[in-house]
Write a structure and sequence with these properties.
- The protein folds into two domains: 184 residues, HUPs (Rossmann fold, 3-Layer(aba) Sandwich), CATH 3.40.50; 102 residues, 2-Layer Sandwich (GMP Synthetase, Chain A, domain 3), CATH 3.30.300.
- It is of the alpha/beta class and 326 residues long.
- It has a five-stranded parallel sheet, with helices on both faces.
- Bound molecules: xanthosine-5'-monophosphate.
Length: 326
C-alpha cells in the first residue's frame, strides 16, 4: 500500500528556491524508481500533466513517452501549444494522436450529458491503450495526481485519469506531485520553465468543450463554441480579468433564434457567456463583468463567429446554477 499522506513537516512550496529543491529531490527519486526504463504519460496540456511532463523530462529525458490525444474538444490553440512547448522547445518524446474524427463520430447524436462524459472518458482510455501497446519496454505510468485528488474524490478533476487500463497494461505508477497543492504545482511548473498561460491556466473540465457544446455535439456548433471562447479569453486577458476571474467560458445551446444578417432574416445559434468566482467550486458567484466589455465581446462574437447572431450573459450564481451548463 502506497503512503498517501503528505508528510507533516513538508514545507509549503511558495518560492522558486523551494521549488528547485523539490525538483532536485524528485528528479533523484524518479531516477531511483524507474532506472533506465520507459515511462508513459497522458499529456493533456493541463497544469498537472504539463508539470509532471516537464519534471520527468528533466529526470529521464526521452525515456518519458508523452502521449497527447487531440479529441477535438480542447480549446483553440491548445494542441498546437503542447507540440510547441514539449516537442519543439523541450525536445520531448511526444506522440501526437489526432483522434478528432474518432471522438466526434462516437459522440454524434448523443445528447445526454453523462453519456457524453462516459463516451469521452472511455474513448480516451481506448486511444491511450492503443498507443501504449505500440510502445516497447514501458513499465511505468506517470500521472498528474495532486494532493486534493487524494483528499477528495469530488467532481473537480482537471486531469485525465487513465486508471481504467486493462489488466495486462497495469504499469507501476509515478506520481511526483501527489503531495502538492495546486499553488505549489504552479510554482514548480514556473520554475521548470513552463509558460505562464500553461501554469496559471483556469480550470478546464476533462470532457472539455464536449460539455459546453450542449446537447448532441455538431461540428459547426463545436467550432462556434471554440471560437467564441477564444475571443472571450483574449478580451479577458486584454482587460485585466485573466487570473482575477476563477473560471470563464462560453457555452452554446442547441437553440436557434431569428436575427438579421445584412438585409435578410436568418436563424442562427446563440452563445452564452459564463464568468464565475469560487473558492472550492461548491458554490460560485457571478463576476460583474463591465457592461461595455460585454458589449464589445458581443460585437466581436456576432461578427467573427460563423452562425452566431446572439450573445447572452449568465447571471446565475451556484446554486441554483452549476458552473457548467451540463
Ligand atoms: P459544476 O458544473 O459541477 O462544476 O458546478 C464545478 C467544477 O467542476 C468542473 N467540472 C468538471 N471537471 N470533468 C472535470 O474534470 C467533468 O466532467 C466536470 N464537470 C464539471 C467545472 O468546470 C467546475 O470547475
Amino acid at each position: 500500500m502506497q503512503n498517501n499522506r503528505r508528510p507533516e513537516d513538508m514545507e509549503r512550496i511558495t518560492t522558486q528556491a523551494l521549488a528547485e529543491a523539490f525538483i532536485q529531490e524528485q528528479v533523484a527519486a524518479i531516477r531511483a524508481q524507474v532506472g533506465g526504463k520507459k515511462v508513459l504519460l497522458a499529456l493533456s496540456g493541463g497544469v498537472d500533466s504539463s508539470v509532471v511532463a516537464a519534471l520527468l523530462i528533466r529526470a529521464i529525458g526521452k525515456n518519458l513517452v508523452c502521449v497527447h490525444v487531440n479529441h477535438g474538444l480542447l480549446r483553440k490553440g491548445e494542441p498546437e501549444q503542447v507540440v510547441k512547448v514539449f516537442r519543439d522547445e523541450m525536445d520531448a518524446n511526444l506522440v501526437y494522436v489526432d483522434a478528432v474524427d474518432r471522438f466526434l463520430d462516437k459522440l454524434a447524436g448523443v445528447a445526454e450529458p453523462e453519456k457524453k462524459r462516459k463516451i469521452i472518458g472511455a474513448e480516451f482510455i481506448r486511444v491511450f491503450e492503443e498507443e501504449a501497446r505500440k510502445q516497447e519496454g514501458v513499465e511505468f505510468l506517470a500521472q498528474g495526481t495532486i494532493y486534493p485528488d487524494i483528499l477528495e474524490s469530488g467532481p473537480v478533476k482537471a486531469h485525465h485519469n487513465v486508471g481504467g487500463l486493462p489488466d495486462d497494461l497495469k504499469f507501476e505508477l509515478v506520481e511526483p506531485l501527489k503531495f502538492l497543492f495546486k499553488d505549489e504545482v504552479r510554482v514548480v511548473g514556473k520554475t521548470l520553465g513552463l509558460p505562464d498561460n500553461m501554469v496559471y491556466r483556469q480550470p478546464f473540465p476533462g470532457p472539455g468543450l464536449g460539455v459546453r457544446c450542449l446537447g448532441a455535439i455538431t461540428r459547426d456548433r463545436l467550432e462556434a463554441v471554440r471560437e467564441s471562447d477564444a475571443i472571450l479569453r483574449e478580451e479577458f486577458a486584454k482587460n485585466g480579468l485573466e487570473g482575477k476571474v476563477w473560471q470563464y467560458f462560453t457555452a452554446i445551446p442547441d437553440l436557434k433564434s431569428v436575427g438579421v444578417r445584412g438585409d435578410r432574416r436568418a436563424d442562427e445559434w446563440c452563445v452564452i457567456i459564463r464568468a464565475v468566482n469560487t473558492r472550492d467550486a461548491m458554490t460560485a458567484t457571478v463576476e460583474p463583468v463591465p457592461f461595455d466589455l460585454l458589449q464589445h465581446i458581443t460585437a466581436r462574437i456576432t461578427s467573427e463567429v460563423a452562425g452566431v447572431n446572439r450573445v447572452l450573459f449568465d447571471l446565475t450564481p451556484k446554486p441554483t446554477g452549476t458552473i457548467e451548463w451540463e
